[in-house]
Design goal:
It contains three helices and four strands, in the order βαββαβα. It has helices at 17-27, 52-57, 75-86, and strands at residues 2-8, 33-38, 46-48, 65-71.
């Protein structure tokens, strides 16, 4: 099963350090493979949702459009939960 969802980073820090660490921790709780794309900076900017270094390298700032993609048994659940982490302050 595959799923994806687009959202906007609303937190004042975007997805940097502490929010990114929380995101990666949550992403690692799912069996699905998770990919994050910073659409504001370009579709070539992709990262594994399981890698803190890759997520922070995306440079997701407040107001950036983000797509979360997942493939696996719990893909829908993963993208829903992870998108909620990004689109809530």
């Amino acid at each position: 099963m595959t799923a994806q969802r687009e959202t906007v980073a609303v937190g004042p820090q975007g997805l940097h350090l502490r929010p990114a660490a929380d995101f990666v921790r949550r992403a690692n709780s799912y069996r699905s493979e998770i990919t994050v794309v910073n659409l504001t900076r370009g579709v070539e900017r992709r990262a594994s949702g399981r890698s803190l270094l890759q997520i922070t390298a995306l440079g997701i700032d407040q107001g950036h459009r983000v797509r979360i993609e997942a493939e696996g048994d719990d893909a829908e659940q993963a993208v829903t939960a992870l998108a909620e982490m990004i689109d809530r302050p």
